Amino acid sequence: MGLYNERILPYLIDLSMAGAGLGQYRRQVLAEVSGEVLEIGFGTGLNLPYYPDWVEQIVTVDPSPGVHRLAQKRIDASPITVTHRMVSGEALPMADGTFDSVVSTFTLCSIPQIEQALAEIYRVLKPGGRFFFVEHGLSDEPDIQRWQNRLTPLQKRIAGGCHLNRAMGQLIGQQFDQVEIEAAYANTLPKVAGYFYTGVATRR
Ligand SMILES: C[S@@+](CC[C@H](N)C(=O)[O-])C[C@H]1O[C@@H](n2cnc3c(N)ncnc32)[C@H](O)[C@@H]1O
Q: How many domains are contained in the chain?
């Protein structure tokens, strides 16, 4: 799996995440991001063109060197200054209350200890700071849920630990008491991978 994860998977992530009509979701989620910004699971830098003009610098984390190598061309082409840390979302090396905005797009599905990562996101937000997210996850249809549960072990193996069946609304709601969230199918993807949770959670 080492060669696959380090050399092949990053290209597959870049290819799949650059398409499937995801740009509209990126634009929507990033529209109100402001202040000190942290992006979790920066991937290949596909969010950079969608940050609003007033965002001039961001801090990013992602544990994968192979993925980050592919981000470099987008970092070089962007007017935004990117300070990247090659660390996991479960153990952020930042002080409590550092950020006004934390961003996660299609990343919580792949973080092994998601509750720990959400606790870290909450911890590094300032009081009143906001967590902006779009994530795919567990459908509200029992038939689709069954397929998501069946396919998740395979998906985890081929897609870098990605779970199809995480109840994102519930997981985010366990950490944050103020959550605005919408859940609906993206019409460009099969239902098992296309039930999207979009929203904003605010730290008290
Ligand atoms: C499907 S990609 C999404 C990338 C990017 N956020 C986007 O929207 O294109 C999932 C990303 O999560 C990253 N990831 C995996 N485990 C992680 C962890 N424990 N903490 C933070 N990011 C992680 C992967 O390296 C990968 O870049």
A: 1
In this structure, the residue with its CA closest to atom 17 of ligand 1 is 111
99 lines ligand 1 (CB under 6 A): no
Strands 195-202 and 125-136: antiparallel
Q: Would you say the CB of residue 13 lies under 6 angstroms from ligand 1?
A: yes
CB-ligand 1 contact for 40 (6 Å cutoff): yes
Domain interval for residue 39: 2-202
b/e 158-189 (16+ beta carbons within 10 angstroms → b): ebbebbbbbbbbebbeebbeebebebebbeeb
Sequential DSSP letters for 33-48: --SSEEEES-TTSTTG
Report whether 178 contacts 201 (CB < 8 A). Answer: yes
Residue 34 banded pLDDT, cuts 50, 70, 90: very high
| Residue to probe by mutation, ligand 1, list 14, 39, 75, 107, most atoms within 8 Å of CB | 107
pTM (predicted TM-score):
0.97
Of 2 and 50, more confident: 50
CATH code where residue 167 lies: 3.40.50.150
